[in-house]
Amino acid sequence: MASSNFTPPEVPMELYAINREKLVKNLRQHLSDAGRPLHGFVFLQGGEEKTRYCTDHTELFRQESYFAYLFGVTEPGFYGAIDISTGKSTLFAPRLPENYAVWLGEIKPASFFKERYIVNAVCYTDEIVKVLQDEYQGPGQPLLFLLHGLNTDSDNFSKPAEFEGKEKFEVDLTTLHPVLTECRVLKSHLELAVIQYANDISSEAHVEVMRRTTVGMKEYQLESMFLHHTYMYGGCRHSSYTCICATGGNSAVLHYGHAAAPNDRTFEDGEMALLDMGAEYNFYGSDITCSFPVNGKFTSDQLLIYNAVLEAHNVVISTLKPGISWLDMHKLAEKTILKSLKKGGIIIGDVDEMMAERIGAVFMPHGLGHLLGIDTHDPGGYPKGMERPKEPGLRSLRTIRQLQDGMVITVEPGCYFIDALLVPALEGSNTSKFFNREVIGRFTSFGGVRIESDVYVTADGCKNMSNVPRETWEIEAVMAGTPWPLEKTFNSSGNGGL
């Protein structure tokens, strides 16, 4: 019977109060620098419950991320306001009908939400206009800073709040989004603690899945074990994203696990598994990938590819510190993998020439990693004025920023054998010379390897928040039943000697 070393922690509402204070401070500075008056309200609309198409089946609700960041509210239908001049925060709760108490439970009074979310006031959504007009101290119509801006990961726009009576306010649609997004880039110590817990319980679940994997299982059984562990023992009702549980050739499908490829293959002896899974706790997430042989023993070809990726993973983490360019880290990971592949005879020629021809993108078409927080792909990757590279591989980078103390970012190099990329490269006049066709033929159905850890950048380096077996001997030991973390006396010979 599985168990856990972790207990779901209480998350203090102070976390969200600190986020609001940070926003007010940064927004005031921004307005001052622009010579603008320091009055008006930050005004956000929380998420709404949705039903499945035309039915009355209600989908499991998860709060809109910016609203969650500022208020920590778990219920749907709320609005929130922050007075820039005073810092006062007000929540507006939906006024629920009487029959809510019959079907959905007790109707909480405004005082309940005021105490729970530690805000200055709680009113109802039908009072928005009156409350904001009464509290406004500036000239003319009250000014609302609404959330509207581009998410550079999704190419979708944040939607500004909509409410009855909006026309009675002056509206600013351009100021809030970049300031609030930048606030989310650097994490407070309370945010880091929640992200660490999400990593702790997710790491433990990954180890549990690794230990229970046997040849002949379905991919979705691995997904199920992970979700069960993080919910049963970790209190994580949500996962950060749809689990990727890929085996064999499926592990070369970068976003496997979607509805058209639903983790349903039966895996076979001699194959690799690539499991990209992360739990979410109190809005904050984790994103961890483990790759391992399904039978618990690496073959020589599996060792070649796995160790190439592991070396890239380790060298990047050992290099990370404030001021380092993420673009340079991606190139470092690419070059490290190419050197290993050349040593293994898969590719031939000069590695610097390969880098110039973007051969690294043939084997790793995705970016090295992304900012992580309330969203798996946290916003802020490309602030205004920063352009996305256009070269293969580099254009998939979710950020090219220089690292800063307090950032949380994933390090996830990978090496894949994807026909859609390999065939054109093998036929290209400038690229075909780099490939050893005889050797690479052994890997046509290999799939791929990805190793992903979540790290936060410190003043003088970084800390790996994920705790799963990475060395091949660690993986084989854990899959054979050795407890994790391994005892200090355990060594790579597997005999437990000193």
From TrEMBL:
SUPFAM superfamilies: Creatinase/aminopeptidase (SSF55920), Creatinase/prolidase N-terminal domain (SSF53092). It comes from the Eukaryota. Residues 11-155 form the Aminopeptidase P N-terminal domain. It catalyses: Xaa-L-Pro dipeptide + H2O = an L-alpha-amino acid + L-proline. SMART domains: AMP_N. Its EC number is 3.4.13.9. GO terms for molecular function: manganese ion binding; metalloaminopeptidase activity; proline dipeptidase activity. GO terms for biological process: proteolysis. Keywords: Dipeptidase, Hydrolase, Manganese, Metal-binding, Metalloprotease, Protease. Its cofactor is Mn(2+). It holds the Pfam family Peptidase_M24. Belongs to the peptidase M24B family. Eukaryotic-type prolidase subfamily. Homodimer. This is Xaa-Pro dipeptidase. The gene is m24.
